[in-house]
Every structure is written in structure tokens, then in C-alpha cells.
Design brief:
The protein is mainly beta. About 10% of the residues lie in helices and about 15% in strands. The protein is built from 3 helices and 5 strands. The strands form 2 sheets. Strands 3-1-5 form a 3-stranded antiparallel beta sheet, with no helix packed on it. The termini are far apart.
Length: about 150
């Protein structure tokens, strides 16, 4: 029996599900602090989400009603953007992404952290040392996992 829920390999969606993002709220949010916006259902679209001429956001974009310690989960195919923080207070969140190991990292850890002399290769790997060659190109799959495998 077919499901109404799209799968990661649904050919009608056009783009496969590759990652899941979690936005963990640390601070209280007011309407003017610019919470992450999403377009519900955009993960099932087969084409790009269009922002009409003269508009700032696409039709259907919402700012979820979130409170401190809430988590917003969405996948890579969901249209999302940071809202504008026009308040005088910082918006504190932690955004994590879980995806296939062979995806290029969105953010690399601070170089000064990974260059610390007191870290083992395993600790550097667990902190997110990227699987990259010195020139910045992506190394073969699993290259960075050698310390843990060994």
C-alpha cells in the first residue's frame, strides 16, 4: 500500500533526502528576533521555491512558534532561511546537521581547536576533523575515520 509520506528516494521529489537539521533554541524568541523560517511541504516540490518579484519571502513561509529548549527539525529539501533579527537581543541557537559521511561539511571546526597538541587523532576525528586533503578537496570516503577504525 503506497504511503502519503515521501521517502528519501521518491522520484517525484526530484532531490533525495540527504540530511536532517536540528535547530535547538537557547534563548527566548520574540517576533522580531528572526527565528528560522520554513515553507511547510517544500520538501515534496519538484522545482525551486520561487520568491515573487517585490516579495522578501516565498508564499507559505512561516516562522514556527518556538520557545527556549524547543527543537525545529527539517530535512535538506525543506526551504529554510534565517529571519531578520531586528531586536537588540542576540538570537542564540545551536544548529546541527546529520547527513551521510561523504557530504561536505557545512562548517569546519575552529582550526585552533583541532591544532591543539594535547588532542589525540581520535579526539580530533570526534570533534569533526574534515575528510579533506591539504588543498581543501574532499578525501575518499572514510579517510578521516582511520584513527577510530585503527
Amino acid at each position: 500500500m503506497p504511503s502519503d509520506e515521501p521517502s528519501g528516494s521518491d522520484p517525484e521529489c526530484g532531490v533525495p533526502r540527504m540530511s536532517i537539521k536540528a535547530v535547538y533554541l537557547l534563548s527566548d524568541l520574540a517576533p522580531d528576533t528572526g527565528v528560522t523560517m520554513v515553507v511547510p511541504g517544500s520538501h515534496t516540490e519538484t522545482g525551486p521555491v520561487i520568491v515573487p518579484a517585490g516579495a522578501i519571502d516565498p508564499p507559505g513561509a512561516i516562522s514556527p512558534d518556538l520557545r527556549p529548549c524547543d527543537v525545529l527539525l527539517f530535512e535538506n529539501r525543506t526551504w529554510h532561511a534565517g529571519g531578520l533579527n531586528t531586536s537588540s537581543h542576540p538570537r542564540l541557537v545551536v544548529m546541527m546537521q546529520y547527513g551521510y559521511r561523504w557530504l561536505a561539511a557545512v562548517d569546519d571546526p575552529a582550526p585552533e581547536l583541532l591544532d591543539r597538541g594535547d588532542l589525540t587523532d581520535i579526539e580530533r576525528q570526534l570533534l569533526g576533523r574534515p575528510d579533506r586533503h591539504p588543498d581543501g578537496s574532499i578525501a575518499h570516503e572514510g579517510a578521516g575515520s582511520a584513527p577510530l577504525r585503527t
